[in-house]
Design a protein that fits this description.
It is a single chain. With about 140 residues, the protein is mostly helical. It has four helices and no strands. It is elongated, with a radius of gyration of 15 Å.
Amino acid sequence: MATNDLADELTTGIKFMDSDHHELIRLTGKLIVASDSGDDQNLISYRINKLIVFTRKHFDREEEAMRRVKFPDRKAHVAEHTKLLEEVLELKQELEGVDETSPFYVHVFMNKWLHDHILNFDVKLAKALNDSAITEPRIS
């Protein structure tokens, strides 16, 4: 998956989800570039922290949408969000650790993380949202 654009297969058709996914991909790209170019640790920490903050915001928006449509797979989807946040927090610890983390590892990890989650979870939620005609969560 290219980090600069959202592949057609990953488009959900739900505006807020696709917009958030674009932003997650953009933030991931910036993290990969920082890690690949050997930027200073402060910049890498800043990039991973921005990604974590936005990921939480995105998951909150999805979870609100799930509640609104009484999404039947909500429990599994929320559990996946919890798992993904734990994984990205582990990546943060690795990036901020003493040992160098391979930029290739960061690239593969983040692309797989985004790709698998969107295809295995978000497309199902998008279908439920489309079926219910709810396309935006009520989060301020």
